[in-house]
Amino acid sequence: MRILLVGPPGAGKGTQAALLAKNLGIPHISTGDLFRANISEGTELGRRAQDFMRKGELVPDEITIGMAKDRMEQPDAANGFLLDGFPRNLAQAEALDGILTDVGLALDSVLDLEVPEDEVVRRIAGRRMCRQDSSHIFHVDYTPPKAEGVCDVCGGELYQRDDDREDTVRKRLEVYHSETEPIIDYYKAQGLVTTLSALGAVADVTQRALAALPDTA
């Protein structure tokens, strides 16, 4: 099964993508992982991407598309994959369709995780990270530390990342609305989109997503 997961920042795409991929036995392919893998392995695409990233510039679509194509051609993706963060715009969506059409394949489903904008801001702006270990993450409302500003696990200082600040989050949402949201209409025209509420317990959202997938048996 070939699935695309879309939704605004803070919708929980990474969490749901990992859970869905595990449930379905297919690889989770995220843009961030593609960049990290290609850069660490020193591939030509990775070197080209790093040149742009060092200058603080956006990586061109052709490089991202090339990385995604290479990853989807790996043996573990022969029976399907779950895409998270790619395609990010209409040009990438059209390129993905072309890649799949060339090998006689197509997407089976596009799951659109829906979250109210105020909730997105609350989720992201409330996060606090531990300076000593970034895997220790808290939230001022949902998972507050026992002592304000102090990590429960190691006692490190908790802080708010610059890209988690409310003004930055709202700018990220503007980019999502202008660049990524149009691909939802693109796939709706193909009859592939199911919109799901991403509110509630993580396990509940996962069950909603699994129930929305087509029966390809």
UniProtKB/TrEMBL annotation:
Region (NMP): 30-59
Documented EC number(s): 2.7.4.3
Residues binding AMP, per UniProt: 31, 36, 57-59, 85-88, 92, 161, 172
Residues engaged in binding ATP: 10-15, 127, 137-138, 200
Record SUPFAM superfamilies: P-loop containing nucleoside triphosphate hydrolases
Cellular localisation: Cytoplasm
The protein's annotated pathway: Purine metabolism; AMP biosynthesis via salvage pathway; AMP from ADP: step 1/1
Adenylate kinase active site lid domain segment(s): 127-163
Broad enzyme group: transferase
The keyword Disulfide bond belongs to this UniProt entry's keyword annotation: no
The organism's place on the tree of life at top rank: Bacteria
Span of the signal peptide: none
GO biological process: AMP salvage
Keywords of the record: ATP-binding, Cytoplasm, Kinase, Nucleotide biosynthesis, Nucleotide-binding, Transferase
Reaction equation(s) it catalyzes: AMP + ATP = 2 ADP
GO molecular function: AMP kinase activity; ATP binding
Pfam family, one: ADK
This protein's domain notes: Consists of three domains, a large central CORE domain and two small peripheral domains, NMPbind and LID, which undergo movements during catalysis. The LID domain closes over the site of phosphoryl transfer upon ATP binding. Assembling and dissambling the active center during each catalytic cycle provides an effective means to prevent ATP hydrolysis.
Protein's job: Catalyzes the reversible transfer of the terminal phosphate group between ATP and AMP. Plays an important role in cellular energy homeostasis and in adenine nucleotide metabolism.
Quaternary structure, from the entry: Monomer.
Protein name (database record): Adenylate kinase
UniProt source species: Streptomyces chumphonensis
